[in-house]
Write a structure and sequence with these properties.
Elements lengths: L2 H15 L11 E5 L3 E2 L13 E6 L4 E7 L2 E5 L3 E12 L7 E3 L6 E7 L4 E3 L4 E2 L6 E6 L11 E4 L5 E3 L9 E7 L4 E5 L15 E8 L2 E10 L2 E10 L2 E10 L1 H7 L5 E7 L6 E13 L1
Parallel strand pairs: 1-9, 2-10
Antiparallel strand pairs: 1-5, 3-4, 3-6, 6-7, 6-8, 11-21, 12-15, 13-14, 14-21, 15-20, 16-19, 16-21, 17-18, 17-20
Length: 285
């Protein structure tokens, strides 16, 4: 999505959170939506953290607003109206940067809007758009090829474990200690062209962690080793879903070929700790 357009939508979303109506002359009809039911057959477990719904109305897709879920949406229109509902997530896990998640299918409905009346959509089903590509799909389950096998820094690596698991039978684990506080792993595969179709590359994952972490793109440009890290996470004592926008990280690295790296750092106050990961998906168009 064009970043300027995204900024405009974000500003409009802030207005919508304050409850500013689009047209005071038309009493609103209301639409309620509890959330979205993500279904991902053959594309890894359907973990998600969809925090808001972005709403558009009419043939011109006029922006109504972005609303925290569960949502009660006022629409200042009457009669048969085409509506589009897009899933929204917290970009890089930060609530101040909401974003439409274009990889999920939108929900479209033609609704008969009556001022003062409410239409309940419940929990509509969504999935990944058919054109979405998975550069990495790491679930740590048996029978799947490991996606992060290269150790870059530290004496330990990303291993398979059953100690704490988000879905399935296995997850990934990085062990850190005061003797080995910094561990970095890299993707087995080298990537290129992920932004060719659309400049839109994200990494999803579930994690619980005693340590800090950052994702980035690394590679060689001529004789120089380029390391460009941006999206990061902080310790969490429960499983957390997060969506990292790696688009600018990859583009600003200026690399034609790159690996996706994860670096982890144990906080100074701890003598040891673990990083648990599950359902890592690097996705693009």
């Amino acid at each position: 999505m064009n970043r300027f357009f995204t900024l405009l939508l974000s500003l409009a979303a802030l207005l919508s959170f304050t409850g500013c109506p689009a047209d005071l002359e038309v009493p609103p009809a209301f639409i309620t939506i509890d959330g979205f039911d993500l279904q991902t057959p053959d594309l890894g477990p359907a973990t998600s953290d969809i925090s808001e719904v972005w709403v558009f109305a009419g043939e011109n897709n006029n922006f109504i607003g972005a609303f925290p879920l569960p949502a009660r949406i006022p629409v200042h229109r009457t009669g048969s109206t085409s509506m589009r509902f897009e899933s929204g997530v917290k970009q890089n896990g930060v609530s101040a940067t909401p974003e439409i998640y274009d990889f999920y299918t939108p929900v479209t409905r033609t609704l008969e809007l009556i001022p003062g009346e409410t239409i309940d959509l419940g929990t509509p089903v969504i999935g990944y758009r058919p054109e979405v590509k998975f550069a990495i799909l790491e679930t740590f389950e048996e029978g799947f090829t490991r996606a992060f096998t290269e150790r870059v820094r530290g004496d330990t690596s990303l291993i398979v474990t059953q100690e704490f698991v988000r879905t399935g039978e296995f997850s990934g684990k990085i062990y850190l200690s005061d003797a080995d506080p910094l561990v970095e792993v890299a993707s087995t595969e080298t990537f290129n062209g992920l932004t060719n179709v659309r400049r839109f590359v994200w990494l999803e994952m579930d994690f619980r962690s005693d340590a800090n972490g950052q994702w980035g793109a690394t590679g060689v440009n001529g004789i120089d080793v380029i390391r460009f890290f941006d999206a990061g996470f902080r310790p969490r004592n429960e499983w957390t879903k997060v969506y990292f926008n790696l688009t600018e990280t990859i583009l600003e690295s200026t690399l034609d070929n790159y690996k996706i790296n994860l670096t982890t750092l144990l906080p100074a106050e701890l003598s040891e700790g673990n990083v648990y990961l599950d359902n890592i998906k690097l996705i693009h168009f």
